[in-house]
């Protein structure tokens, strides 16, 4: 029989609940920390989290708690699934409760806005005692919670972290691949959200399949170009955390970032769209960061600039597309060509 671990998940939203449910399905002693007492009661008594995962029956062995110390005490591994905006605050709360050597896995696909810092770095700064990993891939929470076949990537500098996480999560519907390019895996997860907004907008404007295909492929080129300049391995972007996640997020209406783009494409106001979502769409802040970075580092990112101009400068979609199509002819796969 496979080893049973004591595990915790920090975050009571869609993804935290989906991951907690897998671990409970796998027979691990699983506790999920969430800040809302009403939601804790619902998970413990009705085995559901209707606000975030409507219609999903959770494993009855999954426990929830509002008590952070009790949740993580004695855990072998802790999964962190808090939106980037609040990650540092929650990490600070965890500081006194995580034993040295505990495995901590970030599943957050965002960047700290004020510092342009990835979550692994935020966690490293606040929780130096842990062994870190990041998990990312084409992982729509609703599909995972419905136990649809899914693959993901765990990346850590410590191969033991990868092996333990594979053992904890691997099951008949979830396949966990290992990687060592932690930076690339995490960056890919954050960047693809921006391009999903563009893809949602293109869908709202009834663009053809040729257009969507060009958009997604050039998105991959643009995010890879940025990531390579920042030190990531371009091959990471060919895997599940790169092209895999870009594909799912740019094509599925289950993606919140895609939905933001779709609603913007239908002419709705950004603030109104974000407020009505009721869940996080990390790409909105990541877009602003990428625009700043592309200017500061002089990286050619026409899709980021175009989307930024449409959302924040009131540019017309047709004008932005027109200027992109008339730009100087370029080479394909230039981000890997020397
Ligand atoms: N939903 C998905 O399909 C999915 C898949 C992979 C990764 N992710 C990433 O996981 C992260 C979390 O996403 P999600 O989908 O679970 O978001 P969500 O909006 O569904 O839920 C966010 C959760 O975080 C909690 N939270 C926010 N601020 C908090 C604070 N200060 N203290 C305590 N709790 C706080 C909220 O109460 C809520 O329970 C994001 O970075 C997202 O990109 C999401
Ligand atoms: O709903 P989104 O747009 O945050 O995307 C969810 C996941 O990241 C897809 O892998």
TrEMBL record:
EC identifiers of the protein: 1.1.1.94
GO MF annotation terms: glycerol-3-phosphate dehydrogenase [NAD(P)+] activity; NAD binding
Gene Ontology cellular component terms for the protein in this record: cytosol
Domain Glycerol-3-phosphate dehydrogenase NAD-dependent N-terminal: from-to ranges: 6-160
Originating gene: gpsA
InterPro entries (UniProt xref): 6-PGluconate_DH-like_C_sf, 6PGD_dom2, G3P_DH_NAD-dep, G3P_DH_NAD-dep_C, G3P_DH_NAD-dep_N, NAD(P)-bd_dom_sf
Entry protein name: Glycerol-3-phosphate dehydrogenase [NAD(P)+]
Keywords annotated in UniProt: Cytoplasm, Lipid biosynthesis, Lipid metabolism, NAD, NADP, Nucleotide-binding, Oxidoreductase, Phospholipid biosynthesis, Phospholipid metabolism
Primary residence: cytoplasm
Binding-site residues for sn-glycerol 3-phosphate, renumbered to this chain: 109, 137, 192, 245, 255-257
Residues the record lists as binding NAD(+): 11-16, 141, 256
């Amino acid at each position: 029989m496979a080893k049973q671990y004591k595990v915790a998940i920090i975050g009571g939203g869609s993804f935290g609940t989906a991951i907690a449910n897998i671990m409970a399905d796998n027979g691990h002693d699983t506790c999920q920390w969430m800040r809302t007492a009403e939601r804790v009661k619902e998970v413990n008594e009705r085995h559901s989290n209707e606000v975030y995962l409507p219609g999903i029956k959770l494993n009855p062995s999954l426990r929830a708690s509002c008590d952070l110390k009790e949740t993580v005490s004695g855990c072998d591994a802790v999964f962190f699934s808090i939106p980037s905006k609040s990650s540092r605050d929650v990490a600070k709360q965890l500081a006194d409760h995580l034993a040295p050597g505990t495995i901590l896995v970030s599943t957050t696909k965002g960047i700290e806005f004020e510092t342009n810092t990835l979550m692994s770095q935020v966690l490293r700064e606040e929780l130096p005692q842990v062994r870190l990993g990041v998990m990312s891939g084409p992982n729509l929470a609703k599909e995972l919670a419905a136990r649809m076949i899914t693959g993901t990537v765990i990346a850590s500098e410590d191969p033991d972290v990868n092996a333990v996480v594979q053992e904890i999560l691997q099951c008949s519907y979830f396949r966990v691949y290992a990687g060592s390019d932690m930076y690339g895996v995490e960056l890919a997860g954050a960047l693809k959200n921006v391009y999903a907004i563009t893809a949602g907008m293109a869908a709202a404007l009834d663009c053809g399949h040729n257009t969507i295909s060009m958009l997604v492929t050039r998105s991959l080129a643009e995010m890879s170009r940025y990531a390579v300049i920042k030190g990531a391995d371009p091959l990471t972007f060919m895997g599940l955390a790169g092209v895999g996640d870009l594909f799912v997020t740019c094509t599925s209406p289950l993606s919140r970032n895609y939905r933001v783009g779709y609603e913007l494409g239908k002419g709705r106001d950004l603030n109104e769209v974000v407020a009505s979502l009721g869940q996080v769409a990390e790409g909105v802040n990541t877009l602003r960061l990428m625009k700043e970075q592309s200017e500061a580092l002089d990286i050619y990112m026409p899709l980021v600039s175009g989307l930024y101009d449409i959302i924040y400068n009131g540019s017309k979609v047709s004008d932005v597309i027109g200027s992109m199509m008339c730009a100087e002819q370029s080479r394909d796969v230039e981000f890997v060509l020397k």
